[in-house]
Amino acid sequence: MIKRLIIVGYGSIGKRHLRIMRAQLPLANIRVLHHSSCSESHEFADGCYSSLKEACNFRPEIAIIANPAPFHIEVAQELVNIGCHLFIEKPISIDMEGINDLIEIACAKNVLIQLGYNLRFNESLVHFKSLILDSKIGKVLSVRSEIGQYLPKWRLNFDYRAAVSARKKLGGGVLLELSHEFDYLRWIFGEVTNVSAIVCKQSDLEIDVEDSAFITLQFAPNNNYPDPGPIASLCMDFLRHDTTRTCLAIGVAGSLRWNATIGIVEYWEKNATKWEIVFQHQNQIDDTYVAELNHFLDCVSEHKMPEVTVEDGLAVMRLIGAVRLSSQSKGKNIAINHFNDIEV
């Protein structure tokens, strides 16, 4: 049973994790670490710290790192050094610096780290993946993935210009904020060998980060996808007024389409005349967060490997690094070596 837990960061996602963890661990001593004043009330928490040293002296058994991404690695390294198991919100960082060191420390200290890519716990996406791996549409030839939502409408009654998503120094921009897409595409279709991309700011939004990315990913051949592996197009933006998160897989025996906004998976059988709904489940807003945190607690209790590892977080950062490098080179094709970091 976990007795001491700390939540690092008290923004919207930190508050969500705090509320969920209080429900899961009603008897635990849960503290919050954030660098503003601790004089304000922290609902569901037993106390607050304003320095990392105080938080480490608390000797938490687990920590939820939910502060802005540029500060994840520094905090994570300090907490891992005292043997604290970590749940780190996505993305793991803003680049690859320090991630390998964190992995080494965690291995030496026998510490578990789980990444917060909660879409892996989305029931409709899990079903989409299972159908693809069961060869529902045969060999997958190509993939179309889209994610888009108008940034000023992300959070009601909140100035989008002050949000993490809009600010470079806090790890904003579509590549980092919407990095779920990189993770789930790897999870379903395997490692990426080559990337080409154009990343840009197209709108008049008052942000200092990219609002759009147009990316082509070449997947490696594997047991499920023999040579050549599938090719995916990924479009990401902060601009769409029709909120969209979809993935279409085109195979030799038909197509499968996932629509996250309504929680459905559709199948177009070879020679069919219309889409057939083969799965439907609309998640409530907390469902995937509760599922991923329960999984984390189970992994700590049983000391088993998490579904989403720190190595998965590193792989996503390699992809983002390759995307940035390609865009800087006007869409040049970039080969990814998964044993060496990409220099950007």
Account of the 3D structure:
It is a single chain. By secondary structure, this protein is of the alpha/beta class. It has helices spanning 12-24, 52-57, 72-81, 99-109, 123-133, 174-177, 180-189, 287-302, 310-328; strands at residues 4-8, 29-33, 47-49, 62-65, 85-89, 113-116, 140-148, 192-200, 212-219, 231-237, 244-251, 254-259, 264-269, 276-280, 334-335. Strand 12 and strand 13 form a beta hairpin. Helix 1 (12-24) crosses helix 8. The model has no long low-confidence stretch (mean pLDDT 94).
Q: Which tags fit this structure?
A:
6-stranded parallel β-sheet, 344 residues, alpha/beta, 29% helix, 9-stranded mixed β-sheet
How is the main sheet built? 9 strands, mixed
The count of β-strands is 15
Radius of gyration of CA atoms, rounded to a whole number: 20 Å
Unreliable spans are none
- The computed structural class is alpha/beta
End-to-end gap: 43 Å
Shape assignment? globular
The ordered H/E elements are: EHEEHEHEHEHEHHEEEEEEEHHE
The strands making up the biggest β-sheet line up spatially as 14-13-12-11-7-10-9-8-15
Helix percent band: 25-40%
**Average predicted confidence as pLDDT:** 94
Beta-strand content:
25-35%
Number of helices, where a helix is a run of at least 4 consecutive DSSP H or I residues: 9
